[in-house]
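REQUEST FORM: STRUCTURE PREDICTION
Request ID: SP-0412
Submitted by: Lab K.M.
Chain count: 1
Length (residues): 139
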Amino acid sequence: MKKSMMSLVLGALVLTSVSCCSQAPKPSREALPSVPTVGAAMPNVTTEPRVYGQAALPSYIVQAAVAGATGEAAIRRVFAQYGVTMLTPLGNSQYEIRFSRDPGLEALKGDVNGSGGAVTAVQPNYIYKAMPTTNYRPQ
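STATUS: Completed
RESULT:
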């Protein structure tokens, strides 16, 4: 009797485990998240082709000798001839600057050298993050 009871219990366990494993949910294509496209669905993403490390001209990063309003005033004074349209503080006396008339990096470096130490450095504002491209096709 014990043998037949153990066989019955063992058989029930085997059948239960087989039936549980065979009903595992299968992933459906509808459940997968869709990949957004560039354009109207993503208003903060540009469709303009960008290359990693490409300069986003006419935007530059400048370093002032002093921080705060004094540094901003010095930067505006040094680069006034190019029409400063935007000056955004980035921290540590660094600012992002844009001009209405882009003079080029060499002209800006010349102005930095002639600023009497009010502005200490200038460089192009490089893009350091990957941008989505319009030719992306998910596999």
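NOTES: The radius of gyration is 31 Å.
Reviewed by: T.R.
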